[in-house]
Design goal:
There is one protein chain. By secondary structure, the protein is mostly beta strands. It has one domain: Clathrin heavy-chain terminal domain (Methylamine Dehydrogenase, Chain H), CATH 2.130.10. It is built from no helices and 26 strands. The N terminus and C terminus are likely disordered.
Length: about 250
């Protein structure tokens, strides 16, 4: 059972939910139901849900007994009715949802569909853009109006942070593009994480990890273990800070 629901094997891409988010932490009771506790380990929302995700922007996705997802607030009140086949936490006021046809789109905090469910996979919005996966399994980016701003052409893709996003080409190498899709750092790594304070963690083809700056220049000695950013709010993150949502059936 993952913190994001039953999405796919690739659902969590380098993110461990080891700590509390917005001071509420999911728990599973003796009946296998999910609820939430506060920072003092006190139950504030009793176990009653078949599945649950983390709180973000005041709400959390939950799955009811009929197998549908909706959203609750910090008191446990349902604020967006359970009607979706899957749903993921809000970022930048939008949440990914899956419809009955296994297509992904986005809703706002009123539950209104703001981007129609038409994609095989989607990410979170970050800096106004999110990656999407089309029916051919290729990745591109859309804006919050649902417009494709970077055509689907990549084998894989990550979040935008500090104006750059990591993308994977069909040689299975990662590099970085800007918000208009221009290649800023050529694809050359086995893995490339998000930029934070001007640095990103990468993995060389030989398996060594280290940091690079926004020109692609190595700025730290490489080493043979993953790089940790430490704490982002109350969430431990390594080495790649983004969540993937896609169909695998």
């Amino acid at each position: 059972m993952s913190s994001e629901g039953t999405v796919s094997k690739k659902e969590v891409h380098g993110k461990e939910y080891e700590a509390r988010i917005e001071l509420l932490c999911m728990f599973k009771d003796t009946n296998g139901k999910f609820g939430y506790k506060d920072e003092n380990n006190k139950v504030v929302i009793p176990g009653q849900w078949e599945d649950a995700g983390f709180f973000s922007e005041g709400v959390a996705p939950v799955k009811d007994s009929s197998g549908k997802y909706g959203f609750i607030d910090h008191t446990g009140r349902v604020v967006i009715s359970c009607r979706w086949k899957n749903a993921i936490s809000f970022f930048e006021d939008y949440a990914p949802v899956m419809d009955s046809n296994d297509k992904w789109g986005f809703i706002d905090k009123t539950g209104k569909v703001v981007i129609p469910c038409q994609w095989e996979g989607v990410g979170y919005f970050s800096e106004g853009l999110t990656w999407v996966m089309d029916s051919d399994g290729k990745f591109g980016y859309i804006d919050k109006a649902g417009n494709v701003v970077i055509p689907c052409q990549w084998k894989d893709a990550g979040w935008f942070n500090e104006g750059l996003a990591s993308v994977k080409d069909y040689n299975n190498e990662w590099g970085y593009i800007d918000k208009v899709g221009k290649m800023i750092i050529p694809c050359q790594w086995e893995y490339a994480g998000d930029f934070h304070e001007g640095l990103a963690d990468v993995k060389e083809i030989n398996g060594e990890f280290g940091y690079v700056d926004k020109t692609g220049k190595a700025v730290s000695q490489y080493r043979m273990e993953p790089v940790w950013y430490g704490q982002v709010g109350l969430v431990k993150v390594f080495p790649r800070n983004h969540v993937k949502v896609m169909n695998t059936e």
